[in-house]
Amino acid sequence: MPKLSKDEVEHIAKLSRLALTDKEKEKFREQISSILDYVKELDKVDTKNTEPIANITGLTDIVREDEIKPSMSREKLLKNAPAKENGYIKVKRVKE
Amino acid sequence: MELNKLTIKEAAKLLKEKKITSLDLTKACFERINKLNKKLNAYISIFEKEGMGQARASDQRRVRGLSKSEIDGIPLAIKDNINIEGSLTTCGSSILSNYTSSFDATVIEKLKKTGAVFLGKTNMDEFAMGSSTETSYFGPTKNPWDISRVPGGSSGGSAAAVAADMCIGALGSDTGGSIRQPASLCGTVGLKPTYGMVSRYGLVAMASSLDQIGPITKTVEDAKILYKIIAGYDPMDSTSVKKAFSDQRLAVRNTKIGVPKEYFVKGMDKEVEKVIREAIKDFEKLGYKIVEVSLPYSRYALAVYYVIMPSEVSSNMARYDGIKYGMSEGQNLLDVYMKSRAEGLGDEVKRRIMLGTFALSSGYYDAYYLKAKKVQTKIKEDFDKAFEKADCLLTPTSPTVAFKINEKTSDPLTMYLSDIFTVPINIAGVPAISIPCGLANNMPVGLQIIGPQFGDQAILNIAQEYEQNTGQIGQRNWNI
Question: What ipTM did this prediction achieve?
Answer without folding.
Answer: 0.96
